[in-house]
UniProtKB/TrEMBL annotation:
The keyword Cell membrane applies. The keyword Ribonucleoprotein does not apply. It comes from the Bacteria. The lineage of its organism: Bacteria, Pseudomonadati, Pseudomonadota, Alphaproteobacteria, Rhodobacterales. It is found in: Cell membrane. Keywords: Cell membrane, Membrane, Transmembrane, Transmembrane helix. It comes from Aliiroseovarius salicola. The chain crosses the membrane at residues 21-43, 261-285, 306-339, 359-376, 401-420, 426-448, 469-496, 713-739, 760-786, 806-826. This is FtsX-like permease family protein. Its main location: membrane.
Length: 841
């Protein structure tokens, strides 16, 4: 250890014997920022560990292969069973559960005797699933989600119908181990035995269902190699593969994106805290100016002075990091039952070193970034400071080496966040936004001081001494305008951005719906039922419009004799199966390129493709597209492109073929019904009673369900931003506390001149209101820009500015600043003027 370092350690240790009083704001800001990032990271890691350990349970097997609207044939099942120790075959579809006049949409899972391969089904009363399916002497049994039980007014032992087939409710479905893979269901779950659906028509060719073959494989099976073996035979037949390496991809993507976004919100909070960290270090070092000057007069070098206070800050940073990591660890563990209750999987809530180390790294880099500048300015304190009232560094910039180090630390922090978040674009734009907000708020603070000073000296304010004093105080030297506007403005900017994102998330569905949306989507209409359905609707005055179309579903496997994904990448059209239809003439659509086939056309298959999607996929007129429909490949030429507006909440097919191309393919009809709200109940009752196999999906209920999920996501983002706002308020309190001494002297002078306590208090409140309003206005602008960027570029939605949230931000900024200012105004008001003024002699 060098002599300089030993000397610095000795001086730093003696200097810190006075305690941590001057660093409370420093520690609070660092602790809150690190705790927020550590807590978010710990929950994220818990969810990812849960997904990894429960992949097979969530999927229902080590691997799963899905077919659309059909079961596999004997040859396909033989390929699947070749390496499987056990295989479970299930079918998943929507239907209407009927009890008397009550009807409810349900997502039905028809399972076999092997189900579940992993995990266990929990029922209430606690009976085995196969015993529940036995039912009674007359009826097969079923189990149902409690939400649907309540909606239909059922009790255990009551009878209900699915598609005209009667079942008896044997138990409530408490836990379904593989439910996380079900995605977004439009109705609560019902479990039945697949054997009991034979002959009911609910699983006949052409009806809307997915069959899923779950495989239990031997330990050590190479899932990648097994996928290649199976899909080499079945991919061209429309099969879709999934395995336990990512048992719930939708949940996994959601967790990764939300947690990464929340970590970036946490970093924004750390940036807000950085303002407090920097201010706290600067205030502490200002108070040490005389000590530094004495050390310099005794021969201390610049290096010794810098190391002395750098070591002090390093020790305090370590304390803050330890406190933040401890708090960030305890919060998830304490709230584990609450977190588990709102998650779709069992999260392995525990202590994970990775997220804690990540939070500590962020905190350490932020502390270094925001303290280098004031620490470097200690070099500029000269022995002459003993004989004059000099501030730290006297406003001079540090040496270039420290400026370069600051830039380097900032680049490391940005790079680390970009790498660890996994969302490069979002991370980079977050830091650009924060930098822009910093600059805007610094300029605002300077502008507010200049403007207040200018207005305060206008003749128009003569006769208003309190307002004039408040404005000139804001614009005076040594004021707190810069610190208050910066600290509060950053916190409010993050909250304003989250408020705008929240509003756009919650309102995305309602804003994008047309003014006239359909009341029902009607699916599973058999060809011999469509005329009867139309006859019922034609005689109803409450029905304004009915659209119908035949519907099949298929998987796009090839484009121009190349695998579709090679041509179109990960475009949504080639992911999974797609709905398609046939028609002799274009209906409610406009052909923008090419020509529609003539009526009664009997030649090679032709295709009309959605123009926007074709452009995105890089295909057009003359290209050949192969669709696998019910295991049969149909290849057709794109001969026309047409406009398809999916935002209208009605029918929209990416792909339409000529009728002869699909002749003989089993299919059903789809209908959309536009009706008055008063007529909906009768339509639901009459069609459901006459055609029990038909499923009517309420658009209003679907919108409500989606909006609820959007609200939960928005709430998670809002809660993540609260830590930032709390940190900003802590910094604001620190700024107010730092000005307490100046307020005490000012209050004493004003009292001596005859001012009352109420007038002095009003003077202080007006200053705070001006600064709070300035911070709030800038926050609304910065938050609005950030909200627009996230909504437009990341969520790919239209942005709508929300004025109520903006007004609340400005009002909140004013109130927060006034409260913080007045809290530290009571003591100055209570001090006797003589005592203060004598101390200044």
């Amino acid at each position: 250890m060098s002599g300089t370092l030993r000397q610095a350690l000795r001086i730093a240790r003696r200097d810190m014997r006075g305690g941590l009083r001057g660093f409370r704001i420093f520690l609070a800001c660092l602790t809150l920022g690190v705790a927020a990032i550590a807590a978010i990271g710990s929950v994220r890691e818990s969810l990812q560990q849960g997904l990894a350990s429960q992949g097979a349970v969530l999927l229902g097997g080590d691997a799963s292969v899905t077919f659309t609207y059909r079961f596999g044939d004997a040859d396909e099942e033989a390929v699947l069973a070749e390496s499987a120790q056990a295989m479970s075959v299930i079918a998943d579809f929507r239907s209407m559960a009927v009890v008397g006049e009550e009807r409810g949409l349900t997502q039905v899972k028809a399972v076999d005797g092997q189900y579940p391969l992993y995990g266990s089904v929990v029922l209430d009363p606690p009976i085995p699933l196969d015993a529940a399916f036995v039912g009674t002497d007359d009826l097969a049994g079923a189990v149902m989600d409690d939400l649907l039980i309540d909606r239909l007014g059922l009790a255990i032992g009551d009878e209900f119908q699915l598609g005209g087939t009667a079942f008896v409710l044997m138990a409530e479905l408490v836990n379904e181990p593989d439910n996380a893979t079900g995605g977004f269901g439009l109705g609560p779950r019902t479990l039945v035995s697949r054997h009991d659906l034979e002959g009911t028509g609910l699983l006949s060719q052409g009806t809307l269902f997915d069959s899923e073959y779950r495989l239990r494989l031997s330990d050590g099976t190479d899932l990648g190699a097994e996928k290649q073996r199976v899909m080499r035979v079945l991919e061209e037949k429309g099969a879709r593969w999934q395995d336990a390496r990512n048992g719930a991809p939708g949940i996994s993507r959601f967790i990764e994106r939300l947690s990464a976004f929340l970590v970036l919100v946490g970093l924004a909070g750390l940036a807000v805290g950085g303002v407090g960290i920097s201010a706290a270090v600067r205030a502490y070092l200002d108070g040490k100016t005389e000590t530094i000057a004495i050390l310099r007069s005794l021969g201390a070098t610049r290096k010794l002075i810098f190391l002395t206070y750098f070591l002090q800050v390093a020790v305090l940073t370590f304390i803050g990091l330890a406190a933040g990591i401890t708090l960030g660890t305890l919060v998830p563990l304490t709230l584990a039952p609450l977190i588990a209750s709102v998650l779709p999987i069992d999260a392995a809530i525990s202590i994970y070193p990775g997220p804690l180390a990540e939070a500590a790294l962020y905190g350490g880099l932020a502390s270094l970034l925001f303290t280098l500048w004031p620490l470097a300015q200690t070099e500029d304190v000269q022995p002459a400071a003993l004989f004059r009232d000099a501030a730290l560094g006297e406003g001079r910039r540090p040496r270039p080496v420290f400026i370069g180090l600051t830039v380097l630390v900032l680049m490391i922090l940005v790079g680390t966040a970009t790498w660890l978040s996994g969302m490069t674009e979002l991370a980079v734009w977050t830091f650009i936004g924060l930098a822009g907000a910093f600059v805007a708020l610094l300029l605002t603070g300077s502008g507010v001081r200049r403007l207040s000073r200018w207005v305060g000296h206008r003749r128009g304010l003569q006769g208003r001494p309190i307002l004039r004093m408040a404005l000139t105080a804001v614009g005076g030297p040594g004021g707190e305008a810069g610190a208050v506007v910066l600290s509060l403005g950053l916190g409010l900017s993050v909250l304003a951005a989250v408020g705008q994102i929240d509003n756009n998330l919650r309102g995305a569905i309602s804003r994008e719906l047309p003014e006239v949306a359909p009341s029902f989507f009607v699916v599973d209409i058999q060809p011999d039922q469509i005329e009867g359905v139309l006859a019922r609707l034609d005689g109803d005055d409450g029905v304004s419009r009915v659209d119908t179309a035949p519907m099949l579903r298929g998987v796009m496997t090839r484009i121009n004799d190349r695998p579709a994904r090679e041509v179109a990448g990960n475009h949504w059209v080639v992911q999974g199966d797609r709905a398609l239809t046939y028609s002799d003439r274009p209906t409610r659509t406009h052909v923008v390129a090419g020509e529609w086939w003539p009526e009664e056309y009997q030649g090679p298959p032709q295709i009309s493709f959605a123009a926007e999607e074709a452009e995105e996929m890089g295909i057009g007129i003359g290209d050949m597209v192969t669709m696998n429909i019910l295991g049969r490949d149909i290849t057709g030429e794109i001969t026309s492109l047409r406009e398809v507006d999916f935002s209208q909440a009605g029918m929209g097919f990416v792909l339409t073929m000529n009728p002869a191309a699909l002749a003989g393919a089993p299919h059903t009809w789809l209908a959309t019904i536009y009706a008055d709200h008063a007529a909906e109940a009768a339509i639901l009752r009459d069609i459901g009673k006459t055609y029990p196999n038909i499923t009517l999906i309420s658009v209003r209920d679907a919108i409500s369900r989606v909006t609820e999920i959007m609200g939960q996501v928005a709430a998670a983002v809002t809660y993540g931003a609260l830590a930032t706002l709390i940190t900003g308020f802590v910094v604001l309190i620190g700024a107010a506390a730092a000005g307490e001494r100046a307020r005490t002297y000012e209050a004493a002078v004003l009292k001596t001149l005859g001012a009352t306590r109420a007038e002095i208090l009003l003077n202080f409140a007006l200053r705070s209101a001006v600064l709070g309003a300035a911070a709030g206005v800038v926050a609304v602008i910065a938050g609005g820009i950030a909200g627009w960027a996230v909504t437009h570029y990341i969520m790919e939605n239209d942005f709508a500015f929300e004025p109520v949230s903006a007004a609340a931000i400005v009002t909140g900024g004013i109130i927060a600043t006034i409260l913080a200012g007045l809290f530290y105004a009571w003591r100055p008001l209570s001090v006797r003027p003589a005592r203060v003024l004598r101390a200044r002699d």
